[in-house]
C-alpha cells in the first residue's frame, strides 16, 4: 500500500467508472475489490456486509478464497472484522495474527497475511459492513491510507443503502440496513397509519461522490459554508425566533458548529482526497455521527442532531434542492419523519396523501400534534433516532394510540395492522352511513350533536360527520399555530370561513383560551408554578384588553347579519362575565359608530369549568344566553388532578356520584332559568359517558369529529327512559355508590348499545 498507484483520487475515479457500468451488483462489488487491491498495492481486499442477525458475511474478496463468498461469516465483535464493526472505528495492525482478537478462518486461506487494515462501512452513523485490506508483509499503515479507505467505503455504503446488495443476498438473509425496527415513542394522535417513509427534510441524494476538479469543489464547499453561516446568523437575528427560548439554544449551537474551524477543515481535507463537496460533507457527517453515537451523554447526543441538521442544510445549499418534502412528489401513503416540525409545515403537505407523522421530539401539547389530530392522521413523538433508522420509501407503520412505530415491519406485524385498519375502516363506514340519520333515541328523544373545532382543516368535518354545527370553536388554535399574533384581518378571515362552513347550523366561538398548557411561543409570559391555576383564559384576556377587543371586533365583523354565539372560558366569578360582556358592548358601539354591519343576533355564554361558579349559578344564569360545561377543566379542578398527568388519568372515575351530581345540578339550574346548556369537554365524546349525560337531562353535546359516529350509534340504540331509571337513584341518593361505570356498562351490554 505504501506504493499506492496514484493515490485515492485515481482510485475514486476508477470506482466511479465501475459504478456507472451496467453489471450485476455482485460483479460490481467483485470489480471494486480488485481495483482497491491493485491500487493500494495490497494482496487482499474484502467486503463484509452486516446482516440483520448480527453476522458479518463475506460479500466479495480479491486475494482470499473466493469460493467462500456468502459462506464465511462472523458475529459482530468476533475476530478483527467483527471488532471493527462493533467499535465502528478503523483498525490497522502490522501483524494481525498477534492481536488478541485475531481469529483464524482456515477456509479463507489467510495464514500468510500479516498487515491488516479494516474500516467500518458507515451510513448516517450506522455500521453496514467492513472493508478490509491485507498485506503479506508486516507493515504499518499511514493515516492517509486509512482515510483513503474510509472515503472509498462511502461508495460501498451507498450500494448497501440503495438495496443493491440486499438483492444479491442468499434466500432468507436480511441485511442490517434493511432490518425491521420497532420503536416505542409517545402516542400523540390516535389513528393508525400504514405507509412509506418520507423524510421531512429529505436526505440529499449525492449524485457525484468523486471530484472532477478539486479546485472547483473546494470553492463550492467554501461558498456553501459561507452562505450557511450567514443563514444561521440571519435566523438568530429574526426577532421572533430569538425570543423563543429553546429554539434559540438550538440556533446558538448551530452557530457554534457552523463556525467550527475543524469541521470545515475536515471537509476540505476530504475534498482534497478526491471527493466532491457533497461527498466530503457526507463523509465528515458519517464519521462524526459514528463517534457521537458511542456517547451516552444526552446533551452531546442532542448536539449530534444539530450537526446532522447542519450537514443537511449544507448539502441542500450545495444541491439547490428544496428545504422540505412538502412540495415533492409524495407517495400516496406518506408517513412524514422529522426531528420536529412546526404546525404550518405539516399543513403544507397534501392531506390526501398523508397517513402519519413520526417525530424524534414532539409532545402532547406541541402544536404540530394539534394539527395532526385535526387532520385525523396518526402521530407519534419521542421516537428516538428514527431518522437514522429509515430510508426514504421504507415501509412503516405508525400506531398513534400505543406510540409504536414499526420500520420495515415483518409480514406478521403488517398483516395484524392491516386487519386493525380494516376494522377501523369498517366502523368508519358504519358511522358514515349514519351521517344523515338523526341522533334520536329508541324512545324518541332527539339529541343535538355538534363538533369541536379550531382550525381551517377542521371545517370539512361539519359536513362529513353530519353534525349540527360547531359547539366549541377553540379560537386559540389559530394563535397557537402562528408564529406571531394573527392580525385582525386574519382572524376575521378565519371566522368568516367557519360560519360559511357551518351554513345554517350554529357555531359557538370561544374567546381566546391561552395560558396553562396553551402557550404562544411569541408571547412573553412569566413562568408560573401552577399554570393550570394561573393567568389563563378569561383572566388573561381581561388583563390584555387590546388583545380581547381585537378578537371580539373580528368576530362581530365576521358575523355580519348572521348569528354570533360567543362564550368565555374559565368564568370563576359572575363579574368576569359582566366585564367580558362590557367589552363586547363597547365593540358593538364601535361598529355602529363606524357604520360597520353588525351580527344579525348575538348570544353570549359562559363556560362552566371552575368549581367556584357552581355556587353562583342562579346569578350567572340570569346574565347569560347559554352555558357550556368544559368538563376537561371542571373535572381537573373537582378531582384536583392535572388533566395532562397520565399517571393519574385513571385514578378517579368521571362516572362517579360526585361528578354526576355536579353535572345534574348545572343542568337543573340552567333549566330553571330557561337557559340552554351543553357539554363540550371530552366527556361528551365517549359513548358511555355521553348516554349518561343524556340521562342527566342534557340534550345537546359537542365533541371531537371522530366521536360523532360512535356517540350517534349509541344514542340510536338507547332507550333513554330505561337508562334514567338506572341513573336517577345513583345521583339522588346520599350513600356512597358502587361501581357506576360497571352498572352502565352492564346496562349497555344487555340492551345492545355499542359503547
Ligand atoms: C374543557 O375544559 O372541557 C374545554 C372544553 O376546554 P379546553 O379543553 O379547550 O380547555
Ligand atoms: Mg377548558
TrEMBL record:
Subcellular location: Cytoplasm
Catalytic activity: L-histidyl-[protein] + phosphoenolpyruvate = N(pros)-phospho-L-histidyl-[protein] + pyruvate
Coiled coil: 211-238
GO biological process: phosphoenolpyruvate-dependent sugar phosphotransferase system
Residue span, GAF domain: 24-170
The UniProt record lists the keyword GTP-binding: no
UniProt record similarity statement: Belongs to the PEP-utilizing enzyme family.
Protein name, as recorded: phosphoenolpyruvate--protein phosphotransferase
Amino acid at each position: 500500500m505504501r506504493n499506492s498507484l496514484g493515490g485515492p483520487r485515481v482510485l475514486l475515479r476508477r470506482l466511479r467508472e465501475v459504478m456507472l457500468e451496467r453489471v450485476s451488483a455482485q460483479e460490481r462489488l467483485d470489480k471494486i475489490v480488485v481495483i482497491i487491491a491493485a491500487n493500494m498495492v495490497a494482496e487482499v481486499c474484502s467486503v463484509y456486509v452486516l446482516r440483520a442477525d448480527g453476522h458479518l458475511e463475506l460479500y466479495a474478496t480479491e486475494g482470499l478464497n473466493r469460493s467462500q463468498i456468502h459462506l464465511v461469516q462472523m458475529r459482530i465483535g468476533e475476530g478483527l472484522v467483527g471488532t471493527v464493526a462493533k467499535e465502528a472505528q478503523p483498525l490497522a495492525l502490522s501483524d494481525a495474527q498477534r492481536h488478541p482478537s485475531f481469529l483464524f478462518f482456515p477456509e479463507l486461506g489467510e495464514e500468510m497475511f500479516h498487515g491488516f487494515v479494516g474500516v467500518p462501512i458507515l451510513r448516517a452513523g450506522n455500521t453496514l459492513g467492513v472493508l478490509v485490506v491485507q498485506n503479506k508483509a508486516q507493515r504499518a499503515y499511514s493515516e492517509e491510507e486509512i482515510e483513503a479507505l474510509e472515503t472509498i467505503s462511502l461508495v460501498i455504503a451507498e450500494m448497501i443503502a440503495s438495496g443493491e446488495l440486499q438483492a444479491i443476498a442468499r434466500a432468507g438473509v436480511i441485511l442490517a440496513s434493511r432490518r425491521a425496527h420497532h420503536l416505542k415513542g409517545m402516542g400523540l394522535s390516535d389513528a393508525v397509519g400504514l405507509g412509506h417513509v418520507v423524510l421531512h427534510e429529505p436526505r440529499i441524494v449525492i449524485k457525484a461522490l468523486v471530484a472532477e476538479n478539486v479546485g472547483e469543489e473546494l470553492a463550492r464547499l467554501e461558498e456553501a459554508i459561507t452562505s450557511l453561516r450567514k443563514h444561521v446568523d440571519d435566523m438568530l437575528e429574526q426577532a421572533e425566533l430569538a425570543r423563543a427560548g429553546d429554539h434559540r439554544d438550538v440556533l446558538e449551537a448551530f452557530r457554534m458548529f457552523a463556525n467550527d474551524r475543524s469541521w470545515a477543515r475536515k471537509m476540505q481535507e476530504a475534498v482534497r482526497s478526491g471527493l466532491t463537496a457533497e461527498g466530503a460533507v457526507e463523509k465528515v457527517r458519517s464519521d462524526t455521527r459514528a463517534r457521537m453515537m458511542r456517547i451516552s451523554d444526552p446533551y452531546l447526543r442532542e448536539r449530534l442532531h444539530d450537526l446532522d441538521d447542519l450537514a443537511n442544510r449544507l448539502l441542500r445549499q450545495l444541491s439547490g434542492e428544496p428545504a422540505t418534502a412538502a412540495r415533492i412528489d409524495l407517495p400516496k401513503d406518506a408517513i412524514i419523519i422529522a426531528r420536529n416540525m412546526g404546525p404550518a409545515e405539516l399543513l403544507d403537505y397534501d392531506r390526501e396523501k398523508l397517513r402519519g407523522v413520526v417525530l424524534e421530539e414532539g409532545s402532547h401539547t406541541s402544536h404540530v400534534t394539534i394539527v395532526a389530530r385535526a387532520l385525523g392522521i396518526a402521530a407519534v413523538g419521542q421516537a428516538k433516532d428514527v431518522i437514522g433508522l429509515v430510508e426514504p420509501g421504507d415501509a412503516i407503520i405508525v400506531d398513534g394510540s400505543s406510540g409504536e412505530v414499526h420500520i420495515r415491519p415483518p409480514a406478521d406485524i403488517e398483516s395484524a395492522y392491516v386487519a386493525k385498519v380494516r376494522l377501523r375502516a369498517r366502523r368508519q363506514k358504519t358511522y358514515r352511513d349514519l351521517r344523515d340519520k338523526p341522533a334520536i333515541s329508541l324512545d324518541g328523544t332527539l339529541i343535538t350533536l355538534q363538533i369541536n373545532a379550531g382550525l381551517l382543516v377542521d371545517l370539512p368535518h361539519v359536513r362529513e360527520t353530519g353534525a349540527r354545527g360547531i359547539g366549541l370553536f377553540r379560537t386559540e388554535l389559530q394563535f397557537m399555530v402562528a408564529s406571531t399574533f394573527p392580525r385582525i384581518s386574519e382572524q376575521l378571515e378565519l371566522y368568516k370561513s367557519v360560519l360559511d362552513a357551518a351554513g345554517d347550523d350554529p357555531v359557538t366561538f370561544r374567546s381566546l383560551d391561552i395560558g396553562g398548557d396553551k402557550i404562544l411561543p411569541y408571547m412573553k409570559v412569566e413562568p408560573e408554578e401552577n399554570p393550570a391555576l394561573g393567568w389563563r383564559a378569561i383572566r388573561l384576556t381581561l388583563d390584555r384588553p387590546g388583545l380581547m377587543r381585537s378578537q371580539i371586533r373580528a368576530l362581530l365583523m365576521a358575523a355580519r347579519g348572521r348569528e354570533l354565539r360567543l362564550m368565555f372560558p374559565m368564568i370563576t366569578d359572575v363579574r368576569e362575565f359582566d366585564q367580558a360582556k362590557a367589552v363586547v358592548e363597547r365593540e358593538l358601539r364601535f361598529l355602529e359608530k363606524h357604520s360597520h354591519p353588525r351580527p344579525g343576533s348575538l348570544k353570549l355564554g359562559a363556560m362552566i369549568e371552575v368549581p367556584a361558579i357552581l355556587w353562583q349559578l342562579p346569578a350567572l344564569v340570569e346574565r347569560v344566553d347559554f352555558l357550556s360545561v368544559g368538563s376537561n377543566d371542571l373535572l381537573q379542578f373537582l378531582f384536583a388532578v392535572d388533566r395532562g398527568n397520565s399517571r393519574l388519568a385513571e385514578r378517579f372515575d368521571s362516572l362517579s356520584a360526585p361528578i354526576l351530581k355536579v353535572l345534574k345540578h348545572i343542568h337543573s339550574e340552567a333549566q330553571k332559568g330557561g337557559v340552554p346548556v351543553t357539554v363540550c369537554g371530552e366527556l361528551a365524546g365517549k359513548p358511555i359517558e355521553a348516554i349518561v349525560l343524556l340521562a342527566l337531562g342534557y340534550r345537546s353535546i359537542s365533541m371531537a369529529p371522530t366521536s360523532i359516529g360512535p356517540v350517534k350509534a349509541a344514542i340510536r340504540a338507547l332507550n333513554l327512559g330505561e337508562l334514567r331509571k338506572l341513573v336517577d337513584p345513583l345521583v339522588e341518593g346520599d350513600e356512597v355508590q358502587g361501581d357506576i361505570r360497571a352498572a352502565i356498562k352492564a346496562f349497555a351490554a344487555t340492551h345492545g348499545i355499542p359503547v
